[in-house]
Design goal:
With 172 residues, the protein is an alpha+beta fold. Helix content is 40%, strand content 10%. It has a single domain, classed as Nucleoid-associated protein YbaB-like domain (Ybab, Chain: A), CATH 3.30.1310.
Length: 172
C-alpha cells in the first residue's frame, strides 16, 4: 500500500491536470465561431460558440430591403445550425468523448437546420429557432381598446351606516 503523502501528491497532480484540460477546453470553445452570408451576399453574420450574434454586416444594396429583418434572422439561423460541426473540429481536447457527443447533440437540438424557404405559413415573418414566429412591425395586430373607467359611486343615502360614520365621530 502507498503512503498517504504519495496518494495526496498523486491526487493533487490529477486535479491540476484536470483543471488544465478544463481551461484548454474553455479556451478552445471560446475560439469557436461560425460566419454565414445570405444567398445574395449582402448580409453577413457571425455567431459565437453559444449561438449568440457577435457580428453583423449589411451591404448597401439591401439596406432598404422590405424583409431585411427576416433575411438577417434566416442567415443567423443558418450560421447557428453549423455550430455543432464547428465545435467538433474546433475543440480537439474532447474529441470522441461522451462530453463531445452530448454537446454536439445539444447543439443540433438547439440550432436545427432552418427550413429552406424560411417562412412560417407563407407569411413574412421568420421562424425562431424554437419554432416561434417573429412578427414584422407592419403585421402587429392593433392593441385592444382600453376599458372605460367605472362610473363614480353614488353618495350614500342619509340614515345609512356610512352616513353615521361620515363625520368622523366614531364614538357616539
Amino acid at each position: 500500500m502507498s503512503n498517504p503523502e504519495q496518494l495526496l501528491a498523486s491526487f493533487d497532480a490529477k486535479l491540476v491536470e484536470a483543471k488544465q484540460r478544463g481551461e484548454r477546453m474553455q479556451a478552445e470553445m471560446a475560439a469557436v465561431s461560425v460566419a454565414e452570408r445570405s444567398p445574395d451576399g449582402q448580409i453577413a453574420v457571425e455567431v459565437n460558440h453559444l449561438g449568440n450574434l457577435v457580428g453583423l454586416e449589411i451591404g448597401p444594396a439591401v439596406r432598404e430591403k422590405a424583409n431585411l429583418a427576416g433575411e438577417i434572422l434566416r442567415t443567423v439561423q443558418r450560421a447557428q445550425s453549423k455550430l455543432a460541426e464547428a465545435v467538433q473540429t474546433g475543440v480537439p481536447s474532447i474529441a470522441g468523448t461522451e462530453t463531445m457527443n452530448e454537446l454536439v447533440q445539444q447543439l443540433h437540438h438547439e440550432f436545427p437546420e432552418p427550413e429552406p424557404q424560411g417562412f412560417v405559413d407563407g407569411g413574412d415573418a421568420a421562424p425562431a429557432s424554437d419554432g416561434a414566429r417573429f412578427i414584422a412591425e407592419e403585421e402587429t395586430p392593433p392593441s385592444p381598446p382600453k376599458p372605460k373607467p367605472a362610473p363614480p359611486r353614488p353618495a350614500p343615502e342619509a340614515g345609512t351606516d356610512d352616513d353615521y360614520f361620515g363625520d368622523g365621530d366614531y364614538l357616539r
